[in-house]
Amino acid sequence: MITGASSGIGAAAARLFAEEGAAVVLMARREDRLRALEKEIVAAGGRAAVAAGDVTEPAHAERAVATAVETFGRLDAAFNNAGWAVAGTLLHETDDSVFDRIMRVNVHGVWNCMRHQIPAMLASGTGGSIVNTSSVAGLLATGAAAPYIAAKHAVMGLTRAAADEYGDRGIRVNGLIVGSTRTELMDEVLEKTPALETSFTARAIQKRMAEPREVAQAAAWLCSTRASFVTGAAMPVDGGWT
Ligand code: NDP
Protein backbone atom coordinates (compact mmCIF):
# COMPACT_ATOMS: atom_id res chain seq x y z
CA MET A 1 0.00 0.00 0.00
CA ILE A 2 1.50 3.30 -1.11
CA THR A 3 -0.05 6.63 -0.18
CA GLY A 4 0.67 9.74 -2.20
CA ALA A 5 1.00 7.46 -5.23
CA SER A 6 -0.41 9.96 -7.72
CA SER A 7 2.85 11.90 -8.12
CA GLY A 8 6.45 12.41 -7.05
CA ILE A 9 8.06 9.98 -4.64
CA GLY A 10 4.93 7.84 -4.24
CA ALA A 11 4.43 7.35 -7.98
CA ALA A 12 8.13 6.50 -8.40
CA ALA A 13 7.81 4.00 -5.54
CA ALA A 14 4.73 2.39 -7.12
CA ARG A 15 6.64 1.81 -10.36
CA LEU A 16 9.74 0.52 -8.56
CA PHE A 17 7.90 -1.76 -6.09
CA ALA A 18 5.89 -3.24 -9.00
CA GLU A 19 9.09 -3.81 -11.03
CA GLU A 20 10.50 -5.66 -8.01
CA GLY A 21 7.47 -7.97 -7.92
CA ALA A 22 5.20 -6.37 -5.35
CA ALA A 23 1.45 -6.09 -5.93
CA VAL A 24 0.77 -2.44 -5.18
CA VAL A 25 -2.33 -0.66 -3.87
CA LEU A 26 -2.27 2.98 -4.93
CA MET A 27 -3.81 5.61 -2.68
CA ALA A 28 -4.19 9.38 -3.21
CA ARG A 29 -7.08 11.71 -3.97
CA ARG A 30 -6.58 12.15 -7.75
CA GLU A 31 -8.15 8.96 -9.02
CA ASP A 32 -7.49 9.71 -12.72
CA ARG A 33 -3.75 9.76 -12.05
CA LEU A 34 -3.92 6.53 -10.06
CA ARG A 35 -5.91 4.80 -12.85
CA ALA A 36 -3.30 5.87 -15.42
CA LEU A 37 -0.49 4.56 -13.22
CA GLU A 38 -2.35 1.30 -12.57
CA LYS A 39 -2.73 0.85 -16.34
CA GLU A 40 0.98 1.55 -16.89
CA ILE A 41 2.04 -0.95 -14.21
CA VAL A 42 -0.29 -3.69 -15.48
CA ALA A 43 0.84 -3.08 -19.10
CA ALA A 44 4.43 -3.63 -17.93
CA GLY A 45 3.45 -7.00 -16.41
CA GLY A 46 2.98 -5.82 -12.82
CA ARG A 47 0.08 -6.01 -10.37
CA ALA A 48 -1.72 -2.92 -9.10
CA ALA A 49 -5.06 -1.81 -7.66
CA VAL A 50 -6.47 1.64 -6.97
CA ALA A 51 -7.94 2.75 -3.64
CA ALA A 52 -8.54 6.44 -4.24
CA GLY A 53 -9.04 8.41 -1.05
CA ASP A 54 -7.94 11.04 1.40
CA VAL A 55 -5.52 9.94 4.13
CA THR A 56 -7.09 12.42 6.54
CA GLU A 57 -10.28 10.30 6.45
CA PRO A 58 -9.95 7.18 8.64
CA ALA A 59 -12.58 5.36 6.55
CA HIS A 60 -10.56 5.92 3.37
CA ALA A 61 -7.42 4.52 4.98
CA GLU A 62 -9.42 1.52 6.17
CA ARG A 63 -10.78 0.99 2.65
CA ALA A 64 -7.28 1.05 1.15
CA VAL A 65 -6.08 -1.61 3.59
CA ALA A 66 -9.18 -3.70 2.82
CA THR A 67 -8.43 -3.35 -0.91
CA ALA A 68 -4.96 -4.82 -0.34
CA VAL A 69 -6.30 -7.75 1.68
CA GLU A 70 -9.27 -8.46 -0.60
CA THR A 71 -7.41 -8.04 -3.89
CA PHE A 72 -4.01 -9.51 -3.09
CA GLY A 73 -4.63 -11.67 0.00
CA ARG A 74 -2.74 -9.72 2.64
CA LEU A 75 -0.88 -6.50 3.42
CA ASP A 76 2.80 -7.02 4.07
CA ALA A 77 4.29 -3.61 3.37
CA ALA A 78 3.10 -0.04 3.53
CA PHE A 79 4.75 3.18 2.39
CA ASN A 80 2.92 6.05 4.13
CA ASN A 81 4.18 8.86 2.01
CA ALA A 82 1.31 11.30 1.33
CA GLY A 83 2.23 14.77 2.51
CA TRP A 84 1.96 18.46 1.99
CA ALA A 85 4.26 21.38 2.86
CA VAL A 86 4.45 25.13 2.97
CA ALA A 87 7.74 26.93 3.55
CA GLY A 88 8.99 30.48 3.62
CA THR A 89 6.62 31.96 6.22
CA LEU A 90 7.60 32.76 9.78
CA LEU A 91 5.65 31.06 12.59
CA HIS A 92 3.77 34.19 13.72
CA GLU A 93 2.80 35.00 10.13
CA THR A 94 1.50 31.52 9.34
CA ASP A 95 -2.25 31.06 9.23
CA ASP A 96 -3.86 28.62 11.67
CA SER A 97 -5.49 26.91 8.70
CA VAL A 98 -2.05 26.10 7.24
CA PHE A 99 -0.93 24.56 10.53
CA ASP A 100 -4.14 22.50 10.70
CA ARG A 101 -3.91 21.25 7.12
CA ILE A 102 -0.23 20.31 7.43
CA MET A 103 -0.91 18.37 10.63
CA ARG A 104 -3.98 16.68 9.11
CA VAL A 105 -2.24 15.43 5.99
CA ASN A 106 1.20 14.56 7.35
CA VAL A 107 0.43 13.39 10.90
CA HIS A 108 -3.23 12.29 11.02
CA GLY A 109 -2.64 10.71 7.60
CA VAL A 110 0.13 8.45 8.92
CA TRP A 111 -1.87 7.80 12.10
CA ASN A 112 -5.02 6.81 10.16
CA CYS A 113 -3.08 4.50 7.87
CA MET A 114 -1.05 2.75 10.59
CA ARG A 115 -4.18 2.28 12.74
CA HIS A 116 -5.59 0.05 9.99
CA GLN A 117 -2.39 -1.39 8.51
CA ILE A 118 -1.10 -2.80 11.81
CA PRO A 119 -4.18 -4.98 12.55
CA ALA A 120 -4.04 -6.33 8.98
CA MET A 121 -0.35 -7.18 9.38
CA LEU A 122 -0.95 -8.80 12.78
CA ALA A 123 -3.84 -10.82 11.33
CA SER A 124 -1.74 -12.12 8.43
CA GLY A 125 0.58 -13.91 10.85
CA THR A 126 3.61 -12.97 8.76
CA GLY A 127 4.22 -9.48 10.17
CA GLY A 128 5.11 -6.64 7.88
CA SER A 129 7.11 -3.52 7.18
CA ILE A 130 5.91 0.08 7.37
CA VAL A 131 7.89 3.03 6.03
CA ASN A 132 6.73 6.55 6.86
CA THR A 133 7.97 9.54 4.88
CA SER A 134 9.49 12.11 7.19
CA SER A 135 12.03 14.69 6.12
CA VAL A 136 15.24 16.41 7.11
CA ALA A 137 12.63 18.67 8.75
CA GLY A 138 11.73 15.67 10.93
CA LEU A 139 15.10 15.82 12.72
CA LEU A 140 15.99 19.51 12.78
CA ALA A 141 14.74 22.96 11.89
CA THR A 142 15.20 23.62 8.18
CA GLY A 143 14.11 27.24 7.81
CA ALA A 144 10.79 29.04 8.00
CA ALA A 145 8.42 26.07 7.96
CA ALA A 146 7.33 25.57 11.60
CA PRO A 147 4.12 23.57 10.95
CA TYR A 148 5.89 21.23 8.52
CA ILE A 149 8.88 20.80 10.87
CA ALA A 150 6.49 19.99 13.75
CA ALA A 151 4.53 17.57 11.57
CA LYS A 152 7.56 15.66 10.30
CA HIS A 153 8.98 15.40 13.86
CA ALA A 154 5.60 13.91 14.83
CA VAL A 155 5.88 11.41 11.98
CA MET A 156 9.19 10.23 13.45
CA GLY A 157 7.57 10.03 16.90
CA LEU A 158 4.78 7.83 15.58
CA THR A 159 7.34 5.75 13.69
CA ARG A 160 9.48 5.09 16.76
CA ALA A 161 6.43 4.40 18.95
CA ALA A 162 5.03 1.84 16.53
CA ALA A 163 8.45 0.22 16.01
CA ASP A 164 8.74 -0.16 19.77
CA GLU A 165 5.21 -1.53 20.27
CA TYR A 166 5.18 -4.11 17.46
CA GLY A 167 8.83 -5.12 17.00
CA ASP A 168 8.37 -8.40 18.85
CA ARG A 169 5.39 -9.27 16.66
CA GLY A 170 7.24 -9.08 13.38
CA ILE A 171 6.29 -5.57 12.29
CA ARG A 172 9.14 -3.22 11.42
CA VAL A 173 8.49 0.53 11.22
CA ASN A 174 11.02 2.98 9.82
CA GLY A 175 11.14 6.62 8.79
CA LEU A 176 12.70 8.16 5.70
CA ILE A 177 14.60 11.39 6.30
CA VAL A 178 14.06 12.81 2.85
CA GLY A 179 16.08 15.74 1.59
CA SER A 180 15.12 18.13 -1.22
CA THR A 181 13.59 16.15 -4.06
CA ARG A 182 12.31 17.27 -7.46
CA THR A 183 8.55 16.78 -7.22
CA GLU A 184 5.34 18.76 -7.61
CA LEU A 185 5.47 19.62 -3.92
CA MET A 186 8.96 21.08 -4.37
CA ASP A 187 7.79 23.02 -7.46
CA GLU A 188 4.93 24.46 -5.39
CA VAL A 189 7.31 25.51 -2.58
CA LEU A 190 9.82 27.07 -5.01
CA GLU A 191 7.11 28.89 -6.93
CA LYS A 192 6.20 30.78 -3.74
CA THR A 193 9.79 31.22 -2.50
CA PRO A 194 12.28 30.84 -5.41
CA ALA A 195 15.28 31.74 -3.20
CA LEU A 196 14.92 28.41 -1.40
CA GLU A 197 16.23 26.49 -4.42
CA THR A 198 19.79 27.77 -3.89
CA SER A 199 19.76 27.18 -0.15
CA PHE A 200 18.22 23.70 -0.41
CA THR A 201 20.78 22.67 -3.03
CA ALA A 202 23.67 24.17 -1.06
CA ARG A 203 22.75 22.22 2.09
CA ALA A 204 23.21 18.84 0.41
CA ILE A 205 26.83 17.67 0.24
CA GLN A 206 26.01 16.38 -3.24
CA LYS A 207 24.94 19.92 -4.24
CA ARG A 208 21.77 18.84 -6.00
CA MET A 209 18.24 17.66 -5.30
CA ALA A 210 17.19 14.01 -5.38
CA GLU A 211 15.11 12.48 -8.13
CA PRO A 212 11.97 10.77 -6.76
CA ARG A 213 13.24 7.31 -7.73
CA GLU A 214 16.33 7.75 -5.55
CA VAL A 215 14.06 8.14 -2.53
CA ALA A 216 11.86 5.26 -3.68
CA GLN A 217 14.93 2.96 -3.73
CA ALA A 218 15.42 3.45 0.01
CA ALA A 219 11.72 2.85 0.68
CA ALA A 220 11.85 -0.35 -1.36
CA TRP A 221 14.83 -1.61 0.62
CA LEU A 222 13.22 -0.82 3.98
CA CYS A 223 9.94 -2.46 2.90
CA SER A 224 11.75 -5.60 1.74
CA THR A 225 13.04 -8.50 3.84
CA ARG A 226 16.58 -7.34 2.96
CA ALA A 227 16.07 -4.89 5.84
CA SER A 228 14.87 -7.66 8.18
CA PHE A 229 16.82 -6.38 11.23
CA VAL A 230 16.17 -2.68 10.69
CA THR A 231 13.43 -1.02 12.70
CA GLY A 232 12.79 2.30 14.43
CA ALA A 233 15.40 3.85 12.13
CA ALA A 234 15.50 7.33 10.67
CA MET A 235 17.09 6.60 7.30
CA PRO A 236 18.60 9.63 5.58
CA VAL A 237 18.09 9.99 1.83
CA ASP A 238 19.26 13.56 1.69
CA GLY A 239 22.51 13.81 -0.28
CA GLY A 240 24.29 14.55 3.01
CA TRP A 241 22.20 17.39 4.45
CA THR A 242 24.33 19.78 6.53
P1 NDP B 1 4.11 15.37 -4.43
O1 NDP B 1 3.31 16.62 -4.32
O2 NDP B 1 4.59 14.97 -5.77
O3 NDP B 1 3.27 14.16 -3.82
C1 NDP B 1 2.45 14.28 -2.71
C2 NDP B 1 1.47 13.14 -2.75
O4 NDP B 1 0.65 13.16 -1.57
C3 NDP B 1 0.54 13.22 -3.96
O5 NDP B 1 0.40 11.94 -4.51
C4 NDP B 1 -0.78 13.68 -3.34
O6 NDP B 1 -1.85 13.15 -4.11
C5 NDP B 1 -0.70 13.02 -1.98
N1 NDP B 1 -1.57 13.64 -1.01
C6 NDP B 1 -1.55 14.91 -0.55
N2 NDP B 1 -2.55 15.12 0.31
C7 NDP B 1 -3.23 13.93 0.40
C8 NDP B 1 -4.36 13.51 1.12
N3 NDP B 1 -5.01 14.34 1.96
N4 NDP B 1 -4.77 12.24 0.97
C9 NDP B 1 -4.14 11.39 0.14
N5 NDP B 1 -3.05 11.74 -0.56
C10 NDP B 1 -2.62 13.00 -0.44
O7 NDP B 1 5.29 15.53 -3.40
P2 NDP B 1 6.45 14.56 -2.90
O8 NDP B 1 6.54 13.33 -3.71
O9 NDP B 1 7.63 15.42 -2.73
O10 NDP B 1 5.92 14.21 -1.43
C11 NDP B 1 5.92 12.91 -0.90
C12 NDP B 1 6.35 12.98 0.55
O11 NDP B 1 7.72 13.36 0.63
C13 NDP B 1 5.58 13.97 1.42
O12 NDP B 1 5.27 13.36 2.66
C14 NDP B 1 6.57 15.10 1.61
O13 NDP B 1 6.33 15.81 2.80
C15 NDP B 1 7.87 14.31 1.66
N6 NDP B 1 9.08 15.08 1.43
C16 NDP B 1 9.30 15.68 0.22
C17 NDP B 1 10.43 16.42 0.03
C18 NDP B 1 10.74 17.09 -1.27
O14 NDP B 1 11.73 17.84 -1.34
N7 NDP B 1 9.97 16.87 -2.33
C19 NDP B 1 11.45 16.58 1.10
C20 NDP B 1 11.12 15.89 2.31
C21 NDP B 1 9.97 15.16 2.46
P3 NDP B 1 -3.30 13.79 -4.35
O15 NDP B 1 -3.10 15.26 -4.49
O16 NDP B 1 -3.76 13.10 -5.60
O17 NDP B 1 -4.10 13.40 -3.16
Tags for this entry?
single chain; 242 residues; alpha/beta; Rossmann fold; three-stranded parallel beta sheet; ScgX2; SDR_fam; oxidoreductase; NAD(P)-bd_dom_sf; oxidoreductase activity
Description:
The chain is α/β, with parallel strands linked by helices and 242 residues long. It has a single domain (2-237), classed as Rossmann fold (3-Layer(aba) Sandwich), CATH 3.40.50.720. 49% of the residues lie in helices and 14% in strands. It is built from eight helices and seven strands. It has helices spanning 8-19, 31-43, 58-72, 96-124, 146-166, 184-192, 196-203, 212-223, and strands at 2-3, 23-27, 47-50, 77-80, 128-133, 171-178, 234-237. A four-stranded parallel sheet has the order 4-5-6-7, with helices on both faces. Strands 1-2-3 form a three-stranded parallel sheet, with helices on both faces. β2, α2 (31-43) and β3 (47-50) form a beta-alpha-beta unit. The chain is globular. The structure holds NADPH dihydro-nicotinamide-adenine-dinucleotide phosphate. It comes from Streptomyces chattanoogensis. This is ScgX2. Pfam families: adh_short_C2 (PF13561).
